[in-house]
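[Meeting: bench + compute handoff]

Bench side (C.D.) handed over the final construct sequence. Compute side (W.E.) agreed to return the predicted structure before the next meeting so the bench team could plan truncations. Sequence as handed over:
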Amino acid sequence: MGNDIDVHLGKRLRRRRRLLGLTQQQLAGSVGVRFQQIQKYECGANRISAARLWQLSEALEVPVGYFYDGLSETDRPQVAANDGEGGGEMFARKETLDLIRAYYQLGERPRRRLLDLAKSLNGDVEVA
């Protein structure tokens, strides 16, 4: 298994791929590798080179820095130990991704209304 940074980058890669609704095969095709290589990147077994990270960021429509988000805020040994129940890992859950996809399929006005509803259910007072 790779080191903590490799695992962190792999989790960020998986999260973004799932958020966009891409399969490992689709992502692999867009960067010129086999899906097994994407699997290895996602679990941290293989390191992602700088050139490949650039290709992945282009394919996933995020800046390269996206993959490193959260590293400076966490204790590096905890990055590998965090298996999905911690704060930033909520995006790895299927229902979260389904909700986000559905949200962005709505028009601007329904999105605003849904956001206002969610805030009011949570007890936030600032509803615009």
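W.E. noted at the follow-up: The two ends are 47 Å apart (CA to CA). C.D. will use this when planning the next construct.
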